[in-house]
Amino acid sequence: MPTIPKHGLKTPSQGQLCPPLSRRRPHSTRKKTIYRSLCLALALLVAVTVFQRSLTPGQFLQESLPPTLEPQRAQKPNRPPVNSNNFWKNPKDVATPMTMASQGPQAWDVTTTNCSANINLTHQAWFQGLEPQFRQFLFYRHCRYFPMLLNHPEKCGGDVYLLVVIKSVITQHDRREAIRQTWGRERESAGGGRGAVRTLFLLGTASKQDERMHYQQLLAYEDRLYGDILQWDFLDTFFNLTLKEIHFLKWLDIYCPHVPFIFKGDDDVFVNPTNLLEFLADRQPQENLFVGDVLQHARPIRRKDNKYYIPGALYSKASYPPYAGGGGFLMPGSLARRLHHACDTLELYPIDDVFLGMCLEVLGVQPTAHEGFKTFGISRNRNSRMNKEPCFFRAMLVVHKLLPPELLAMWGLVHSNLTCSRKLQVL
Ligand SMILES: *[C@@H]1O[C@H](CO)[C@@H](O)[C@H](O)[C@H]1NC(C)=O
Ligand SMILES: *[C@@H]1O[C@H](CO)[C@@H](O)[C@H](O)[C@H]1NC(C)=O
Ligand SMILES: *[C@@H]1O[C@H](CO)[C@@H](O)[C@H](O)[C@H]1NC(C)=O
Ligand SMILES: *[C@@H]1O[C@H](CO)[C@@H](O)[C@H](O)[C@H]1NC(C)=O
């Protein structure tokens, strides 16, 4: 049991089970401790049992929808709602003009999934020649937005300075746990009179049918404990990562439109929040800043055995627009909102970080490279000693790739009394 839930999880019997110790006869300290532990364990057991018995998965999902969703949807839209008819149009036809940016929906306005495969494609020769995963992608490419299963409209309440958002998948609870204990820990203040730092994880649904029910219940429980999960009703597959990107941007436009800065990253990276906040201290939220590990003139990979292989039929140009590796990057909230509208004018592309590069190109914004973002590893040589050197990690902003045990160990080292040479300063 990681922590005692702060909210959401009611422990109805706690009052009766464990009357405050102060009202009771004095015990020895040891007895008190044992008594307290027993009470707590019992209360948690009762709570978990009551909670599990009383809710079906359907209820889990309904409960977590924002209570205001329905009425606000009724009052709303000036903007065409994304419905089954729009799915069949070219995104250019349904995109909201940029000038309407301030008149978006007040709540998540997609409540049904009714999007069928684009069977028109089956008659086309170039399509028939594609690998199955690309055919699957193209069949559903026009399905842009899905309903929300877990939402936290309250997350940006109050004075939030930095929103940390992390792509995660339902089965990798251990990564989320390690991040919550390390770089994802929320702060009431970013220092220097700045507002809070808040963290959210972005998820779709389990990609394997047999994992779905079981993991969905666990996830709903995890969300009750921490209140930091945003989940949408699409399969969490590699080619659906771009959906995660656009769903987050749309969410931000609705629920977090005024946040000064956003850090977006993967769940297998090391982040140094102290350095991020120091870096941001000299920046303005109005800047056209998109900073990360930037690739210029990257070529689409044409080798079929590569994870990032793209057939010529899907992208025929020789190189991609400049883009930042998806492992971790920073941007102001104002730019993220403009990106949301820019991305809505483009057809989806299966590689999410390249897709964001395409959206930036629409806006005419150049991503900025920074030494401190090592989303392709500190050294490309896996065996390099640098990949295990805490002084490097202390000097960086983001480093790929660390799994939970390595992350926890490195976090401990970086926050111990290290003596590092000044040569390593990158800020
Ligand atoms: C499929 O073809 C029909 C008829 O040509 C057209 O009306 C429809 O928009 C097409 N669907 C898509 C997704 O392009
Ligand atoms: C889904 O779309 C199809 C065709 O566009 C329509 O016939 C059907 O009624 C829709 N179903 C729902 C539940 O909206
Ligand atoms: C993306 O998610 C949708 C909705 O769950 C699903 O229909 C589609 O097959 C997924 N696409 C890919 C390429 O996995
Ligand atoms: C680190 O150093 C300071 C003073 O140099 C000392 O007070 C502190 O106990 C040390 N912490 C650890 C974990 O060794």
Automatic annotation (TrEMBL):
Topological type in the membrane: Single-pass type II membrane protein
Keyword NADP: no
Source organism superkingdom: Eukaryota
Record has Signal as a keyword: no
Enzyme Commission number: 2.4.1.-
Subcellular location: Golgi apparatus membrane
Main location: Golgi
InterPro entries: Glyco_trans_31 (IPR002659)
Pathway(s) of this molecule: Protein modification; protein glycosylation
Gene Ontology MF annotations: hexosyltransferase activity; UDP-glycosyltransferase activity
Region (Disordered) residue spans: 1-29, 62-90
UniProt KW keywords: Glycoprotein, Glycosyltransferase, Golgi apparatus, Membrane, Signal-anchor, Transferase, Transmembrane, Transmembrane helix
Gene Ontology cellular component list: Golgi membrane
Alphabetical list of Gene3D superfamilies matching this protein: 3.90.550.50
Biological process per Gene Ontology, one example term: poly-N-acetyllactosamine biosynthetic process
Family the UniProt entry places it in: Belongs to the glycosyltransferase 31 family.
Free-text function comment from the UniProt entry: N-acetyl glucosamine (GlcNAc) transferase that catalyzes the transfer of GlcNAc via a beta1->3 linkage from UDP-GlcNAc to the non-reducing terminal galactose (Gal) in the linearly growing chain of N- and O-linked keratan sulfate proteoglycans. Cooperates with B4GALT4 galactosyltransferase and CHST6 and CHST1 sulfotransferases to construct and elongate mono- and disulfated disaccharide units [->3Galbeta1->4(6-sulfoGlcNAcbeta)1->] and [->3(6-sulfoGalbeta)1->4(6-sulfoGlcNAcbeta)1->] within keratan sulfate polymer.
The protein's name: Hexosyltransferase
Naturally occurring in which organism (per UniProt): Aotus nancymaae
